[in-house]
Amino acid sequence: MPLDYDLVKAWPIADMRQRFDVRDTMLYNLGVGAGIPDEDGHVDLRFVWERRLVPVPTMAAVLGEGASWMLDPATTISAGNMVHAEQSVIWHAPLPASGEVIARTAVEEIYDKGADRGAILVTRRTLHEADGDRTLATIRGSVFLREDGGFGGSAIAPKPAFPAPSRPPDRRIAMPTRPEQALIYRLSGDYYPLHVDPEFARRIGFDGTILHGLATYGFAARAIIALAAEGDPERLAQLDVRFSAPVYPGETLEFDLWQVDRSTVAFVCRAGNRVALSNGLAKIRAS
Q1: Which of 20, 80, 169, 239 is at a distance of 20 to 30 A from 126, taking alpha carbons?
Q2: Catalytic-role residue among 190, 212, 240, 256
Q3: Which domains are seen in the chain, by residue range?
């Protein structure tokens, strides 16, 4: 059955209310590598110790995420063969280490890359404090639906590319991942078998289980905070990436950063000889 554009575009996604505590926050932070010592053997205790805990800001991308609606066969989405394509978060207020939030999600658009070329589905989610309804973040994510192209929709690119400058990077950092990184990260709510079942991963074209794109995204946030925000998570205002190649658990992530202007950072992330994250854009608030 081909993808039904009108049905998916108007799919009713229920608001999601989620309560989280310091244990959830520490688990998320560990999932994006916060417990792995840096090259000097240092671990930033703010991300792993409940006495002074702050979340890695990209935790906003998993709160109230609720992507399971795409697995419903009634949507006409071929859910067995989809991968994360792009991610963007804009933070409007600091994320607390514990609390309760409400997420409101809608399908923003579906782009048709053509028959045998797949489709791109873009969602927009706003994250609000349950008490007072203050908006914490606006989250956009796109999913590459490998088997759902050719339904007759628009092929216009979701957003313009943000390529890295051609000059050498201004800063560079390497961050190792653990062999069990995906097994830790999945405990924050993404149980897609691609990240745990090697047979499933090989069946859809990968060499083995891969790290969640949003886990690599969290590593990127930590790199930007360390190198461009003087270690202050609250200064990270926006983070956009394109997921360009898989990362396998245990690989080292290498981030190259370019200071474009006072508030804008471009970056790429490599894993081995692959560009894992491209079109990296970060906005930094003044101190």
Answers
A1: 80
A2: 190
A3: 5-284 (3.10.129.10)
